[in-house]
Design goal:
The protein is α/β, with parallel strands linked by helices. It contains eight helices and ten strands. The strands form four sheets. It has a three-stranded parallel β-sheet with strand order 3-10-9. Helix 2 crosses helix 3 and helix 4 runs parallel beside helix 5. The N and C termini lie far apart (46 Å).
Length: 264
C-alpha cells in the first residue's frame, strides 16, 4: 500500500526490515496454519525453537523450512527450553551448524518452569559467551532497566524485555519500566512475551518500543490468521502514533471546534 510517510525500517544487526512484528512458529495446528498466519502478520523475522522444531535435523518429518524458506524469511533460532547458560550456548552452536553459519539468535534462559520467568544471571553469562563467539544476540529478559542496559553493553544487537510472563496474555504490566528501557537504549528494544491482543501490541509501540515479538497471542487465538492480521495493523498503528506524538493529557475539556470568532 502506498503511504505518504518515509520508509521507517527496523534495523537489527545492520539489516533493515519493513515489518516491526516478529512472530513465533510454535503452537499452530499444522505447518500450513503456521505459513498462513506468518503471511497475515507480514512478519519477516520468525523464531524457531531448535529443540522442538525440525529444520532438517530429522529427515523424513515435516520441515518448517518447506513453508517458511530462509530466502524469504530471516530465521531467528531461539533457546526455548534451556535452563542454564551452558545449554543455551550449546543450542545456539547447533543452530549455527544447521543453518550454515547463521549468526542471529534469540537467547532465552528460563529460571522457573511454572512462570517461565527468565534467569537473568544465566542470561548474562550466556550472552557474554555468545557475543565473544561472534553470535548476533537478541536477548529475552525481564523488564529491569539496569539489566537491559547491561545486555546492551555486553554487545547484544537487540534487547527484548517481557511485558508479562510467557503465554500469559496479561498485556503490558509495567509501562514505566519499558519507558525507562526505551529512553536509555542505543539498540532496538522489542517487547517479547505477555501480549494478549492487538491493543497490547499497539501500546508497546506507542511507548516507543522498536518492535514486538509474539507467538501464543496469535497461535492460541480462535482464528490465528485473522489475529495475525490484527497484530500487524496494531503494530503499524502504534508506531505511527508514537512518531506522530500524542496530545498531552488534561483534566479539562478542549473543544475541537473553538467558539472564538463565531458569528452571533
Amino acid at each position: 500500500m502506498d503511504t505518504p510517510f518515509p520508509h521507517d525500517p527496523l534495523v537489527i544487526a545492520g539489516k533493515a526490515y519493513a515489518s516491526r512484528l516478529l512472530t513465533g512458529t510454535g503452537k499452530f495446528k499444522d505447518l500450513d496454519e503456521t505459513r498462513r498466519a506468518t503471511e497475515a502478520a507480514g512478519a519477516e523475522i520468525v523464531t524457531v525453537a531448535i529443540r522442538r522444531t525440525n529444520i532438517g535435523q530429522t529427515p523424513g518429518e515435516p520441515n518448517l523450512l518447506d513453508v517458511l524458506p530462509p530466502d524469504r524469511y530471516t530465521l531467528l533460532p531461539n533457546t526455548a527450553g534451556c535452563y542454564s547458560a551452558e545449554d543455551a550456548v550449546r543450542t545456539c552452536r547447533l543452530a549455527r551448524e544447521l543453518l550454515d553459519g547463521h549468526p542471529l539468535v534469540k537467547l532465552e534462559v528460563i529460571g522457573d518452569p511454572r512462570t517461565l520467568y527468565p534467569d537473568v544471571v544465566q542470561t548474562l553469562r550466556a550472552a557474554e559467551t555468545l557475543v565473544a563467539e561472534g553470535f548476533q544476540v537478541m536477548a529475552y529478559t525481564s523488564d529491569d532497566p539496569v539489566l537491559c542496559k547491561r545486555l546492551e553493553e555486553i554487545g547484544c544487537v537487540a534487547v527484548m524485555p517481557l511485558a508479562a510472563p510467557i503465554g500469559s496474555g496479561l498485556g503490558i504490566q509495567n509501562r514505566y519500566n519499558l519507558l525507562e528501557i526505551v529512553e536509555n537504549a542505543r539498540v532496538p528494544i522489542l517487547v517479547d512475551a505477555g501480549v494478549g491482543t492487538a491493543s497490547d501490541a499497539s501500546i508497546a509501540m506507542e511507548l516507543g518500543c522498536d518492535g514486538v515479538l509474539m507467538n501464543t497471542a496469535i497461535a492460541g487465538a480462535g482464528d490465528p490468521v485473522r489475529m495475525a492480521h490484527a497484530m500487524r495493523l496494531a503494530v503499524e498503528a502504534g508506531r505511527h502514533a508514537f512518531l506522530a506524538g500524542r496530545i498531552p493529557r488534561k483534566r479539562f475539556a478542549s473543544a475541537s471546534s473553538p467558539l472564538d470568532g463565531v458569528i452571533g
